[in-house]
Amino acid sequence: MDSPFHNDQKKVTELYEYIFQTMPDFEEDALTKEVVWQKLYGKEVFKDSRLRRVMSDLLRVCEEFLDWEMYKNTPQQVQINRLRYYRTHHLDKFFKATLQDIRMYEQQHPQQDIWHYFYQLGISHEITNQISQQRKRTEEPNLQEVSNHLDAFYLINKLKCCCSIFNYQNLAVANYEVPMIKEVLMHLEEQDYSHIPLIVIYHKCLLTLLEPEKTVHFQELKTTLFEHQSLFSQEEARDIFVLARNYCIKQANQGKQEYLKELLDLYEVELANGILLDHGFLSPFTYKNIVTLGIKLKRYEWTQVFIEEYKTFLSEEFRESTYAFNLARLYFDKEDWAKVIPLLNQMEYKEIFLELSARNLLMKTYYEMEEFEVLISFLDSFQMFLRRKKKILGYHCTGYMNLIKVTRQLVRLEYGKKEEREKFKQKVVEMKEIVDKQWVLNKL
Fold it and tell me: d(Cα 57, Cα 10) in Å, to the nearest integer?
């Protein structure tokens, strides 16, 4: 902000410094135009157009700073621009030195993403133009390398785009035109691209979407992915693993329970290599999903180790509540009821749906422990909670209200006749909007 290269206006700097002082709350009263004007111009008559011009200039300076930061964070593009400058100014010695620096950088940073071959294409173009500029007719103008990098960039991005399209079509009704997909798939069958793992992997990802019944595609994807995952940038690896996990989830939902083990294998590799972390943090939803999977597979010891080890990777805001809830879920499934209640009762939940799930788990625990008097009282308070939060919860409210109603009847049926239980069971089976229907049915 103080650099004359970016900004030579004193009022722009003053405006920035004042706004910076209002962090982190940015209170509205402190940032009205009148208050800001007084801070910048004192007792001068307020002029809206003048203030808006300073504000516009500050935005421009900030955006130029962001542009510069983004540019610095793409060293490959910086290197290509440097090559272009030295080539166009006939500085051959510096061109060669920069090219050597690029090759050294590539050795030190082997990670790849979908843009890797775009940058390789840019470098190859500069080498071709350099050869042409020097008019060395006996020297091959590097055209094969240009062609190879162009093909690799196109194929990787085409395959990834097709994966996104067909993956989305599994979730929603949408029609897309996908030209040349048949030609691309035929080309990949005829050519060997084993030296470019990204092409192989996105090819296999696409085949799992187009031919999900052929499980060999997933197995080949998994083998190649596990072998080369360290080669990819974190963002690229994350995208690939999401496609692989989605395949496993879809297969498991179709009743192929062996894919739950495959899903956990994927998660374990992602955890071991930090792929699931975003700026050093693990999403509470991912944390919960992994715990759910571990519980389903009865991998209790592994799940408990995960819960403890990855607690510190949760954001501080949700750490304690997410940890307590998921540990309680583990104890519940292990039928260690006595440990569930203290964990859930001591927590303050900052996310309403997490609190809703915790109340549901607490309700089921009271039932399993046959603490029916406590349970009836709890159901009353749970019902009041749902009524207070009805607008926020929306359609979720109906499912939980029905669960409360059914749980009350379950308690009464503890002392009822077998015929009544069978009749009630049929009623539950026919219910469409109810949370935890399978748990209820298991009690009958």
Answer: 11
Token code pair at residue 334: 């292990």
Helix (H) or strand (E) holding 256: none
Query: What is the number of residues in the chain?
Result: 444
| Cα–Cα distance measured from residue 84 to residue 91, given in angstroms and rounded to the nearest whole number | 10
Res. 171 pLDDT band, cuts 50 70 90: confident
User: Do 221 and 208 touch, CB atoms closer than 8 A?
Assistant: yes
Q: Model confidence over 12-27: pLDDT tens digits? A: 888 998 898 888 888 8
Count of CA atoms in the C-beta half-sphere (13 A) of 14: 12
Cis peptide, bond prior to residue 141, ω within 30 of zero: no
Which 3 state secondary structure label does DSSP give 278? strand
Q: Enumerate residues 6+ apart whose C-beta is below 8 A from 237.
A: 229, 270, 273, 275
User: Can you tell me the distance from the alpha carbon of 332 to that of 161, in angstroms, rounded to the nearest whole number?
Assistant: 42
Which are the contacts of 231, defined by CB distance < 8 A and separation ≥ 6? 110, 111, 112, 197
Contact 265, 299 (CB under 8 A): no
- For residue 390, the 8-state DSSP code is H
What's the gap between Cα 163 and its chain centre? 17
User: Per the structure block, which two tokens stand in for 231?
Assistant: 């080669």
Q: Report the pLDDT value the prediction gives residue 5, as an integer from 0 to 100.
A: 67
281, β-bridge pairs: 278
In whole angstroms, what is the distance from residue 421 CA to residue 410 CA? 9
Q: What is the mean pLDDT of residues 97-104?
A: 94
| CA-to-CA dists, residue 106 to 79, 101, 264, 345, angstroms | 11, 9, 33, 54
The answer to whether residues 115 and 233 touch, using CB atoms and an 8 Å cutoff, is: no
pLDDT 10s digits, 223-268: 999 999 989 999 999 999 999 999 999 999 999 999 999 999 999 9
Cα dihedral 375→378→382→388 (10° resolution): 160
Element (DSSP H or E) covering residue 397? helix 396-413
Coil, helix or strand at residue 122: helix
Domain positions in the chain: 10-72, 75-141, 362-444
Per the prediction, the chain carries an average pLDDT of: 91
- 239 alpha-carbon distance from chain centroid: 8
Q: Locate 166 and state its tokens.
A: 């067909």
The pTM assigned to this predicted structure is 0.82
Distance CA 117, CA 155 (A): 10
Quote the CA–CA distance of 220 and 178 in Å, as a whole number: 24
> Of 33-37, 137-141, 220-224, which one has max mean pLDDT?
220-224
Helix H, strand E, coil C: the string for 24-44 is: CCCCHHHHCHHHHHHHHHCCC
